[in-house]
Structures are given as C-alpha cells and as structure tokens.
C-alpha cells in the first residue's frame, strides 16, 4: 500500500487507516482500534461573521450530529415504583456510535451539581467525567447541557390540593434547579394545560432573571466551577448554558435582555475558569432562545452584543411541524432559525429536534427534516436516546399511571425499563451519511437515506482531509473525487477520509 507521509499523519489524527484509493482494507486489529480510540479528539471552536460555523483545530468545518442522553438526569419521581431515569448502560454509547453519531448532548442538572448551595457535588462530576470518557472512546464529543423543564422537580402540586378554577390542573414536578433556588412567592403550582403555564413556574423564573437572593449569580458561579473541571478536555465540545429558559413574567424583556444578560455573565465565568486551568482552552458556548421557540417555532433571540465572545453558537430547538403550536412547516422552521442565527452572526445548531408517536407515521416528516438539515449544512441532537418509564414526560402522558412502552430512538419497555432495541425508522434516517469534518467550508450537501450515498462540495484554501461517515448499507463504496482514499470499518458503517484541496466535489455511491 502506498500513501504519502502527510496523508498517514493526518489519518492517524482522524482515526483511519491508510489504504489504496478505492480499496477496502481489512478490519484493524483490536489493539490498533483501541489505540486509535485513545487518541484525543481534535479541539473544536466556533467562529462568527462570514465564517460562522464550528471548526476543528485543522480548520475543518465540523457537523455535530447525535442524540440527547438523559441517563445522568435528576428528574422528579412521580411514581414510587418507576425510576425517572435509566442509568447509563454499557451498550448505550457503542450503539449510538454505530449510527455514526459524533456527539451526545448530555443532560445534567443544577439540582445535582449543587444540591447544597456553594458546594459542587464531586460525585456527580465523576459521573459526568465517566460519560465524557466513554463518549471519547467511541469517537464522540459531548455537549454539557444545563437542562431544565418547568424550572425544577421542586415545583409540583401537593397531593390532595384542589386546583381552581376548573381550567387549572394539578402539575407534576420536572427537572432543573435545586430546592434552595426555587422561589415561587407562594403562587399556585397548578397549571393551564402545559407545564410552563403555572404561576409558580413563572414566578421561579422571574426571580431567577431578577437574581433574587443571588440565585442567578449562584448558577453563574457553578458554571465557572464546572468549566474548570473540563477546561482542558477536548472531548467536551462545549456548554449549553440553559435549556429552554422560561421568560417568567418578563415576556419580551426576557427574550431580548434577561437571557442575554445571564448568558454574558456565564460566558465570562467560563472563560475565566478556562484561562486559569492548566492547559485550559476556550470551549464552544451554545445558547438558546426561550422556550417559546419550541412552542411556536420562533421568538425573539437575545439582542446581539450580549457578549463580545466569538466562540458561541445559537442553538434553538427545531420542532416545527412536530410539537410546535404554530402551523409552521419544517422548511419555515429552518428559515426562521437561520434568520435568527444570521442576525446574531453565529453558526446554527439544533440542540433538540424529533418526532413522537408512531415512527411509521412520522417517517416522511423525519426524512423531510433530514433533507433540510443537509441543505442548511447543520448538525443537531435528536430528542431523545431513551425515555424512562418514570420520566416526567412518560408520566405526564399517562396521567401518573404506569405508561406503555416508550418510543424514543431506543425503545424502552415498561415497566422495568427493558431494552427493546433501536426504532428502525428513526435509526435509518439518523444513520445516513454525512461529513464529520470538511476542510475549509462546506458548500452543498445531499445524502440518500436508503442507499447510504452522499454528494457534497466544498472549498478550502489549503489541502486537508475530508472525513465522512458512511452507513454499512452502502456496501462497498464507489468513490468519486478526492485523493488517497482511506477507509476504516466501524460498527455500523465506515469512516472514509479523502485528501481534498481548492474547490472540491466528492460523491460516494454503492458500487453494486
């Protein structure tokens, strides 16, 4: 086999083996695969302005595609016999990697990070670190997501309390903030139909935006402490500062000013911690609009200028034609998200997206979403890998009774949280071919879900290695474009690398 030294050196970084163009090499030995997995992932960063995007340290545009993972979640337990989260299982991350995923959005909760005010829970940090290491071993990055839904698990309607008027309903608890940071001013925990429409939840968020009792400052400090723990970790792609924040009673003000003010403060704390840490470096900060975006498909993003930091990415949740109330098409959802990202000058990444219910009925919409995700050349994280029988989402739909089997990407049998395998319709679309890292900038991208084929164009000022995920169903791939093809067999598919330069076009199709 012949490959020049540069190609082999680069191949060692992207974890592929050098082979002749168009020739598949036999699978690596277990020892060499283990050594390859041990190699650190390239550091990532974001750029704003004309080069808005996510890049690695080799100046390749990176698409982060993967799934949300809730196994470290600290959720409200609404049924005594049903744990609200399924703890990490050994095959979870290998199964994710077999779909070609290169990122997990790891749900973490402030209530577990800081159950006692001012004290970081080191046992929880160790659990997070274990998952980061496990993801890295599979070639996947981690986005640490400070998750919340309806403020936290400490807002729930007490048993026996009667909700008046009849329009109001008792509410179960959810996830997010610790008890000491939950300030509801004694307002009713009853809700109007959905979890966010509760006076107590609204008050809790209002007090957070107003920094009542210093609770916002406390989370800012916690973000600094968390960033210090992972400041030198390349497998951590970045930090999602707060999942779907509620505007509180400050509707309009929250969208434009309150969220931005908090994000700016948290970014400063994170950067200060990274600067002080040994070998620390700047990680991407993902920031979201308020929860109204998920409900209506769009809302006002934070005002541009809330931070001077450029290592940031706008990360709304693209649920148009899925769970949004507004009658938006999938295409319109993308258009609105791109418009907002452009107004902020940042890259776009969807921290959550997905469909719920019958996978067969949802298949056409899922495929449509995939086509726009490729057209807009963005990444995202499917919601969700697995949903526990006792997860608040499950119990909310079953009115507190033992729910039926939960259909996420991984089907979960209830009761007992029984492994039932991948949902094939979802797995097929989510495992389609895509460029993990493309030198310079991607210009066009199109992937065929059923055959595993892919075609893309890009441009780069200097030669580099294009890395593609190809699903196993492509068989023996026929490669057009690029030089010095290098193919590595992985569980569920292949990693293909090609050396490209200038304006490049690459297509990979089944040879059969």
TrEMBL record:
Keywords: Glycosidase, Hydrolase. Residues 95-387 form the Glycoside hydrolase family domain. Pfam families: Cellulase. GO terms for molecular function: hydrolase activity, acting on glycosyl bonds. It is an enzyme of class 3 (hydrolase). Its EC number is 3.2.1.-. It comes from the Bacteria. SUPFAM superfamilies: (Trans)glycosidases. The keyword Hydrolase applies. Gene3D superfamilies: Glycosidases. Belongs to the glycosyl hydrolase 5 (cellulase A) family. PANTHER family: ENDOGLYCOCERAMIDASE, PTHR31308. This is Glycoside hydrolase family 5 protein. It comes from Paraperlucidibaca wandonensis. The lineage of its organism: Bacteria, Pseudomonadati, Pseudomonadota, Gammaproteobacteria, Moraxellales.
């Amino acid at each position: 086999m012949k490959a020049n030294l540069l190609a082999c050196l680069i191949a060692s970084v992207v974890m592929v083996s050098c082979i002749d163009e168009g020739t598949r090499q036999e699978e690596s030995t277990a020892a060499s695969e283990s050594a390859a997995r041990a190699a650190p992932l390239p550091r990532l960063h974001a750029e704003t302005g004309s080069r808005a995007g996510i890049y690695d340290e080799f100046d390749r545009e990176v698409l982060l595609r993967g799934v949300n993972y809730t196994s470290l979640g600290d959720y409200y337990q609404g049924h005594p016999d049903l744990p609200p989260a399924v703890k990490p299982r050994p095959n979870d991350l290998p199964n994710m990697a077999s779909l070609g995923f290169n990122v997990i959005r790891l749900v973490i909760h402030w209530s577990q990070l800081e159950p006692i005010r001012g004290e970081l829970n080191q046992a929880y940090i160790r659990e997070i670190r274990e998952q980061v290491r496990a993801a890295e071993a599979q070639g996947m990055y981690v986005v640490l997501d400070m998750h919340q839904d309806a403020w936290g698990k400490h807002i729930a309607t007490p048993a026996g309390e009667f909700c008046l008027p009849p329009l109001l309903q008792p509410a179960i608890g959810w996830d997010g903030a610790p008890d000491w940071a939950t300030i509801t001013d004694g307002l009713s925990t009853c809700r109007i139909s959905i979890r966010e429409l509760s006076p107590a939840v609204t008050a809790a968020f209002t007090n957070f935006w107003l920094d009542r009792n210093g609770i916002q400052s406390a989370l800012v400090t916690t973000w600094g402490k968390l960033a210090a723990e992972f400041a030198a970790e390349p497998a951590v792609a970045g930090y999602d500062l707060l999942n779907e924040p509620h505007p509180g009673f400050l509707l309009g003000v929250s969208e434009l000013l309150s969220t931005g003010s908090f994000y700016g403060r948290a970014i400063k704390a994170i950067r200060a911690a990274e600067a002080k840490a040994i070998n620390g470096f700047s990680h991407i900060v993902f920031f979201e609009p308020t929860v109204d975006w998920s409900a209506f498909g769009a809302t006002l993003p934070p005002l541009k200028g809330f931070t001077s930091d450029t290592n940031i990415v706008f990360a709304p949740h693209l649920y148009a034609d899925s769970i949004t109330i507004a009658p938006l098409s999938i295409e319109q959802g993308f258009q609105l998200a791109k418009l907002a990202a452009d107004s902020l000058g940042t890259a776009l990444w969807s921290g959550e997206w997905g469909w719920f219910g019958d996978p067969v009925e949802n298949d056409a919409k899922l495929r449509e979403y995939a086509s726009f995700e490729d057209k807009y050349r963005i990444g995202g994280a499917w919601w969700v890998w697995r949903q526990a029988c006792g997860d608040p989402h499950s119990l909310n739909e079953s009115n507190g009774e033992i729910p039926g089997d939960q259909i996420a990407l991984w089907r979960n049998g209830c009761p007992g949280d029984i492994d039932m395998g991948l949902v094939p319709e979802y797995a097929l679309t989510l495992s389609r071919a895509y460029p993990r890292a493309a030198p310079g900038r991607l210009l066009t991208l199109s992937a065929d879900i059923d055959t595993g084929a892919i075609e893309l164009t890009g441009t780069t000022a200097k030669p580099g290695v294009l890395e593609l995920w190809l699903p196993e169903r492509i068989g023996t791939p026929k490669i057009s474009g690029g030089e010095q093809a290098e193919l590595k067999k992985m569980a569920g598919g292949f990693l293909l690398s090609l050396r490209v330069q200038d304006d490049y076009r690459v297509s990979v199709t089944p040879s059969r």
